[in-house]
Specification:
Blueprint: E1 13-17, H1 28-38, H2 44-60, H3 65-79, H4 81-99, H5 102-113, E2 117-125, H6 126-136, E3 140-148, E4 154-159, H7 166-177, E5 187-192, H8 198-201, E6 206-210, H9 214-223, E7 227-228
Parallel strand pairs: 1-2, 1-5, 2-3, 5-6, 6-7
Antiparallel strand pairs: 3-4
Length: 235
């Protein structure tokens, strides 16, 4: 009788998700800026013009993330922590919660049911995104971390490596190392809409172009990556 071979150990599975235009059909960072205009915290014309320009730079892959974070956090920093927290709770109720789609929740639930470790990895800052991750039921978040002063107030500067483009790869490797894991030792799936995430899409086991922009949709077709449209695809 041939002795039974022990089963091969399965590799840990990690499901990675970009946030804006991937799990959400909106850009939470941009919408937070628009929300502060409606609150009267910013001049509509000046802030709106700058916000649009930064957003265009992000889409084109040329955003100076340090300049943007100083700009994007200026209004909430000027209001103080309590007012900022109250405003963000209102932002969640009025902007984020109505934007959450059943299709995105179903995708998250599929990976939850499979027992996958789940992580949102985003170029939007932690102030905006941490409550969104909680709302979506995802315990782990890599976002742009913000410096605080001795009184725990945000300074407008970034702490550590920005989780953007190649920075997402660096931050993810750090996060995995803290858990004695490596990208090579896990089965990884990454859902993203943007060419900005190409460095990480090229490294994971299973890249999925999700609600992809025009360039990523074309690249996914060329490389035979699966495409997933959770929302209406871009024209």
């Amino acid at each position: 009788m041939t002795p039974r071979q022990p089963p091969q150990a399965t590799r840990p599975r990690l499901a990675l998700f970009d946030l804006d235009h991937t799990l959400l059909p909106i850009d939470s960072d941009y919408e937070w800026g628009e929300f502060t205009i409606r609150l009267g915290w910013c001049d509509r014309d000046d802030f709106g013009r700058c916000n649009e320009a930064f957003y265009a730079d992000y889409q084109a892959g040329r955003l100076d993330v340090h300049d943007y974070v100083r700009f994007a956090t200026q209004a909430m920093r000027s209001q103080g922590p309590q007012a900022a927290a109250q405003a963000h709770a209102q932002f969640m109720r009025e902007v984020i919660e109505p934007a959450v789609r059943p299709s995105a929740l179903a995708l998250l639930q599929k990976h939850r049911d499979q027992g996958d470790l789940m992580l949102i990895i985003t170029a939007t800052n932690e102030f905006v995104t941490r409550p969104i991750a909680r709302l979506l039921g995802v315990d782990h978040l890599i976002a742009i971390e913000l410096e605080r002063d001795s009184a725990s107030r945000y300074t407008g500067e970034i702490r550590g490596i920005p989780s953007m483009r190649e920075g997402k790869v660096q931050r993810l490797k750090q996060w995995l190392a803290e858990r004695d894991l490596t990208l090579e030792g896990i089965e990884s799936t990454f859902y993203s809409d943007s060419m900005n995430d190409l460095p990480l899409l090229e490294l994971v086991s299973h890249p999925v172009a999700t609600n992809p922009d025009t360039r990523l949709r074309a690249l996914a077709r060329e490389r035979h990556w699966p495409t997933l449209d959770l929302f209406d695809p871009a024209p």
